[in-house]
Protein backbone atom coordinates (compact mmCIF):
# COMPACT_ATOMS: atom_id res chain seq x y z
CA UNK A 1 0.00 0.00 0.00
CA UNK A 2 1.37 3.38 -0.97
CA UNK A 3 2.28 5.73 1.85
CA UNK A 4 0.48 9.03 2.26
CA UNK A 5 2.43 12.29 2.55
CA UNK A 6 1.42 12.47 6.22
CA UNK A 7 2.76 8.97 6.85
CA UNK A 8 6.03 9.72 5.07
CA UNK A 9 6.47 12.83 7.20
CA UNK A 10 5.81 10.92 10.43
CA UNK A 11 8.27 8.19 9.43
CA UNK A 12 11.02 10.66 8.50
CA UNK A 13 10.65 12.72 11.68
CA UNK A 14 10.37 9.58 13.79
CA UNK A 15 13.52 8.13 12.25
CA UNK A 16 15.51 11.26 13.06
CA UNK A 17 14.19 11.32 16.63
CA UNK A 18 15.10 7.66 17.17
CA UNK A 19 18.53 8.08 15.59
CA UNK A 20 19.32 11.06 17.79
CA UNK A 21 17.91 9.81 21.09
CA UNK A 22 17.33 6.08 20.81
CA UNK A 23 13.96 4.44 21.22
CA UNK A 24 13.75 4.72 25.01
CA UNK A 25 14.47 8.45 25.16
CA UNK A 26 12.63 9.42 21.99
CA UNK A 27 9.50 11.50 22.62
CA UNK A 28 6.29 10.75 20.77
CA UNK A 29 5.12 14.26 21.61
CA UNK A 30 8.27 15.70 20.04
CA UNK A 31 7.80 13.56 16.92
CA UNK A 32 4.20 14.72 16.47
CA UNK A 33 5.12 18.36 17.08
CA UNK A 34 8.07 18.30 14.66
CA UNK A 35 5.98 16.54 12.03
CA UNK A 36 3.36 19.29 12.32
CA UNK A 37 0.42 17.01 12.96
CA UNK A 38 -1.90 16.23 15.85
CA UNK A 39 -1.58 13.11 17.98
CA UNK A 40 -4.87 12.04 16.46
CA UNK A 41 -3.28 12.12 13.01
CA UNK A 42 -0.37 10.04 14.31
CA UNK A 43 -2.63 7.41 15.87
CA UNK A 44 -4.43 7.13 12.57
CA UNK A 45 -1.29 5.38 11.30
CA UNK A 46 0.53 3.97 14.36
CA UNK A 47 -0.88 2.99 17.70
CA UNK A 48 2.34 3.54 19.66
CA UNK A 49 5.92 4.73 19.54
CA UNK A 50 7.02 1.11 19.24
CA UNK A 51 4.74 0.56 16.24
CA UNK A 52 6.43 3.50 14.53
CA UNK A 53 9.88 2.09 15.28
CA UNK A 54 8.77 -1.29 13.99
CA UNK A 55 7.53 0.28 10.75
CA UNK A 56 10.94 1.87 10.23
CA UNK A 57 12.93 -1.27 10.99
CA UNK A 58 10.95 -4.42 10.25
CA UNK A 59 11.03 -4.49 6.42
CA UNK A 60 14.84 -4.39 6.33
CA UNK A 61 15.43 -6.50 9.44
CA UNK A 62 12.98 -9.20 8.42
CA UNK A 63 14.36 -9.16 4.90
CA UNK A 64 17.89 -9.80 6.12
CA UNK A 65 16.69 -12.60 8.39
CA UNK A 66 14.90 -14.32 5.51
CA UNK A 67 17.96 -14.06 3.28
CA UNK A 68 20.11 -15.38 6.10
CA UNK A 69 17.90 -18.46 6.34
CA UNK A 70 18.17 -18.95 2.57
CA UNK A 71 21.96 -18.77 2.84
CA UNK A 72 21.94 -21.53 5.44
CA UNK A 73 19.78 -23.69 3.19
CA UNK A 74 22.22 -23.12 0.33
CA UNK A 75 25.00 -24.61 2.47
CA UNK A 76 22.99 -27.77 3.05
CA UNK A 77 22.54 -28.15 -0.72
CA UNK A 78 26.32 -28.55 -1.01
CA UNK A 79 26.18 -31.87 0.87
CA UNK A 80 24.29 -34.04 -1.65
CA UNK A 81 26.17 -32.33 -4.49
CA UNK A 82 29.50 -33.29 -2.82
CA UNK A 83 30.65 -29.68 -2.96
CA UNK A 84 31.15 -29.04 0.75
CA UNK A 85 34.70 -27.82 0.12
CA UNK A 86 33.01 -24.70 -1.27
CA UNK A 87 31.24 -23.88 2.01
CA UNK A 88 33.61 -21.13 3.15
CA UNK A 89 33.68 -19.48 -0.27
CA UNK A 90 29.88 -19.60 -0.25
CA UNK A 91 29.79 -18.04 3.22
CA UNK A 92 32.06 -15.21 2.12
CA UNK A 93 29.95 -14.63 -0.98
CA UNK A 94 26.80 -14.35 1.11
CA UNK A 95 28.59 -12.09 3.59
CA UNK A 96 29.30 -9.65 0.78
CA UNK A 97 25.68 -9.82 -0.28
CA UNK A 98 24.53 -9.20 3.30
CA UNK A 99 26.81 -6.21 3.86
CA UNK A 100 25.54 -4.60 0.68
CA UNK A 101 21.96 -5.27 1.77
CA UNK A 102 22.69 -3.68 5.14
CA UNK A 103 24.12 -0.61 3.45
CA UNK A 104 21.15 -0.42 1.10
CA UNK A 105 19.05 -0.06 4.29
CA UNK A 106 21.64 1.66 6.45
CA UNK A 107 19.34 3.82 8.59
CA UNK A 108 17.16 0.84 9.51
CA UNK A 109 20.18 -1.15 10.66
CA UNK A 110 21.58 1.87 12.47
CA UNK A 111 18.33 1.91 14.43
CA UNK A 112 18.61 -1.82 15.13
CA UNK A 113 22.28 -1.69 16.10
CA UNK A 114 22.42 1.51 18.13
CA UNK A 115 18.92 2.70 19.02
CA UNK A 116 16.69 -0.32 19.68
CA UNK A 117 16.92 -0.75 23.47
CA UNK A 118 13.37 -1.16 24.74
CA UNK A 119 12.10 -2.80 21.55
CA UNK A 120 12.02 -6.39 20.30
CA UNK A 121 14.94 -5.54 18.02
CA UNK A 122 17.30 -5.09 20.95
CA UNK A 123 17.96 -8.84 20.70
CA UNK A 124 18.08 -8.95 16.89
CA UNK A 125 21.78 -9.72 16.57
CA UNK A 126 21.57 -12.27 19.40
CA UNK A 127 18.73 -14.03 17.56
CA UNK A 128 20.84 -14.20 14.41
CA UNK A 129 23.67 -15.66 16.47
CA UNK A 130 21.44 -18.33 18.00
CA UNK A 131 20.09 -19.30 14.60
CA UNK A 132 23.58 -19.49 13.14
CA UNK A 133 24.94 -21.52 16.06
CA UNK A 134 22.18 -24.13 15.82
CA UNK A 135 22.47 -24.49 12.06
CA UNK A 136 26.27 -24.41 11.88
CA UNK A 137 26.60 -26.99 14.65
CA UNK A 138 24.21 -29.32 12.81
CA UNK A 139 25.92 -28.69 9.46
CA UNK A 140 29.36 -29.45 10.86
CA UNK A 141 28.07 -32.62 12.53
CA UNK A 142 26.82 -33.81 9.15
CA UNK A 143 30.21 -33.04 7.60
CA UNK A 144 31.91 -34.93 10.41
CA UNK A 145 29.74 -38.00 9.77
CA UNK A 146 30.73 -37.84 6.10
CA UNK A 147 34.40 -37.68 7.03
CA UNK A 148 34.73 -34.10 5.75
CA UNK A 149 36.24 -32.74 8.97
CA UNK A 150 38.10 -34.11 11.96
CA UNK A 151 37.81 -31.55 14.73
CA UNK A 152 34.98 -30.85 17.16
CA UNK A 153 33.89 -27.68 18.89
CA UNK A 154 31.65 -27.35 21.94
CA UNK A 155 28.39 -25.43 21.62
CA UNK A 156 29.71 -22.80 24.04
CA UNK A 157 32.69 -22.14 21.80
CA UNK A 158 30.46 -22.11 18.72
CA UNK A 159 28.35 -19.47 20.43
CA UNK A 160 31.26 -17.29 21.52
CA UNK A 161 32.95 -17.36 18.11
CA UNK A 162 29.70 -16.69 16.27
CA UNK A 163 28.73 -13.88 18.64
CA UNK A 164 32.13 -12.24 18.12
CA UNK A 165 31.74 -12.59 14.36
CA UNK A 166 28.27 -11.05 14.15
CA UNK A 167 29.18 -8.26 16.55
CA UNK A 168 32.19 -7.48 14.39
CA UNK A 169 30.07 -7.39 11.22
CA UNK A 170 27.57 -4.95 12.69
CA UNK A 171 30.39 -2.74 13.95
CA UNK A 172 30.47 -1.44 10.37
CA UNK A 173 27.14 0.25 11.07
CA UNK A 174 27.92 1.29 14.63
CA UNK A 175 31.07 3.07 13.44
CA UNK A 176 29.49 4.60 10.34
CA UNK A 177 31.96 3.03 7.92
CA UNK A 178 31.45 3.80 4.26
CA UNK A 179 30.15 0.95 2.12
CA UNK A 180 33.60 0.52 0.56
CA UNK A 181 35.30 0.42 3.97
CA UNK A 182 32.74 -2.06 5.23
CA UNK A 183 33.21 -4.41 2.27
CA UNK A 184 36.99 -4.43 2.71
CA UNK A 185 36.62 -4.93 6.45
CA UNK A 186 34.19 -7.87 6.31
CA UNK A 187 36.29 -9.66 3.70
CA UNK A 188 39.33 -9.40 5.97
CA UNK A 189 37.10 -10.58 8.81
CA UNK A 190 36.02 -13.60 6.75
CA UNK A 191 39.65 -14.59 6.14
CA UNK A 192 40.41 -14.32 9.85
CA UNK A 193 37.44 -16.41 11.00
CA UNK A 194 37.77 -18.98 8.20
CA UNK A 195 41.36 -19.60 9.26
CA UNK A 196 40.19 -20.09 12.82
CA UNK A 197 37.45 -22.55 11.83
CA UNK A 198 39.92 -24.44 9.65
CA UNK A 199 42.30 -24.75 12.58
CA UNK A 200 39.63 -25.99 14.96
CA UNK A 201 37.60 -28.24 12.68
CA UNK A 202 40.37 -29.42 10.32
CA UNK A 203 38.32 -29.58 7.12
CA UNK A 204 39.29 -32.23 4.58
From TrEMBL:
It comes from the Bacteria. InterPro entries: Homeodomain-like_sf, HTH-type_Tx_Regulator, HTH_TetR. Pfam families: TetR_N. Residues 4-64 form the HTH tetR-type domain. SUPFAM superfamilies: Homeodomain-like. Residues 27-46 bind DNA. The keyword Methyltransferase does not apply. Keywords: DNA-binding. This is TetR/AcrR family transcriptional regulator. The lineage of its organism: Bacteria, Bacillati, Bacillota, Clostridia, Lachnospirales.
Amino acid sequence: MELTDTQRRILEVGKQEFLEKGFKDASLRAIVKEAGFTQGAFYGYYDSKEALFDALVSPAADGLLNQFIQAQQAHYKLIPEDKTEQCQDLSTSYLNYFINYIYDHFDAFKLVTCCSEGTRYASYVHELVELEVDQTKDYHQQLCQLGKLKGTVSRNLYHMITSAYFTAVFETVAHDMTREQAIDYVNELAVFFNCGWNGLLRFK
